[in-house]
TrEMBL record:
CDD domains: ABC_KpsT_Wzt
Cellular component, GO annotation: membrane
Protein name listed in UniProt: ABC transporter ATP-binding protein
Similarity-based family: Belongs to the ABC transporter superfamily.
Key words of the record: ATP-binding, Nucleotide-binding, Transport
Any GO MF annotation of the entry: ATP binding
Organism: Antarcticibacterium flavum
InterPro entries (UniProt xref): AAA+_ATPase (IPR003593), ABC_transporter-like_ATP-bd (IPR003439), ABC_transpr_TagH-like (IPR015860), Bact_Polysacc_Export_ATP-bd (IPR050683), P-loop_NTPase (IPR027417)
Superkingdom to which the source organism belongs: Bacteria
PROSITE patterns, per database record: ABC_TRANSPORTER_2 (PS50893)
Every ABC transporter domain range: 27-255
Amino acid sequence: MKENELLVKVEGLSKKFCKDLKTSLWYGVKDLYSNIGGNKNNSLRDKEFWAVKDISFELRRGECLGLIGHNGAGKSTLLKILNGLIKPDTGKVTIKGRVGALIELGAGFNPILSGRENIFNNGAILGFTRREINDKIEEIIDFAELREFIDMPVQNYSSGMTVRLGFAIAVQIEPDVLLIDEVLAVGDMGFVLKCFKSIDRLLPNTALIFVSHNMPMISRLCNQILLLNKGESYYQGKDVAKGIASYYNKFSNNPESIIFTDNSIRFLNSRIINAKKEEEKFLVNWNTQLHLELELENLTLYHLPFITVSFYDKEQREVAIFNYDQKVRALDTGKFKLLFIHPNLQLSKGIYTVNLIIYSSSELKNPMLRINNILSLQIEHPTQSYPPFLLDCKIQMQEF
């Protein structure tokens, strides 16, 4: 087994589809006669679109390509071409060695056969002898944690059980090239962690193409990235952080959204008064003070309500909330301002949005107003970090 051996080479790959079934069948008949005459049609016709267009890359043993993009970008089509399930219209794919694939839930399984019989079927398709499969089958069953159900028809498996079996087969046969689509999102957290441990073990001897909408998973596994947009390469390279940033910047959509209001208090504006604003985002340096000002208008209340300010990351996970001690204060009708001061912001580099919820009391009951994305802020720091917090610390060394 050679290190840095070229295992996957994709050259000018393109695939088009038709939006209408009848038109697609008619084009298929026309193309059949055109191909016999040696005149292949590579241009778009009415109702056709490029699912994948002019994609090229190389992948060597020990490398992992993160394939990202929103739904409909062409990721699954590209994986199906690489796995030989779909023939491209133009371009060439060269793959060396055995290919393991987890592309669609249950793909490659015969539903009326048992899990055990499907293990033998999949192994045979990959070129393994019955003896070689027999040597691996106990490890596959143990990894999938399906010993009690291994002789039950696969059609009676849950989606999680199907993923367990498919992944167990894919990793235990130790393929040269492994293709993984978003199917891991179906599994429970314990099994997902087990899968990643197996991928870590396989990766030095495997070329991996990994499709996911989970950017922390992409950053953990991949050393190069391909961002697809409408079938075309929008970003391609070995700077994974830049590719992920391009993904967020290309597809970010954070409109102000009033979720609920009882018309007792009105939100007017919000800003970070000690930060510069660029392109609708406030630029904040890591580990500095944050002065967040809210402008509100009291319509019917007699006392200041309890106000929660929450921070959400790019995956829209709630990562932080302001904690403060609010005393009961009388409130006149009209406009007023509140200033929240946080001494040293240690959220890691990235873009965050702020949500506002106003309750009648600190017991967080009876919400009066909820608004998502009252502002966006970008934490600036030279270090790219995907955990939500970059904690400032000092290190000491002692001899003993």
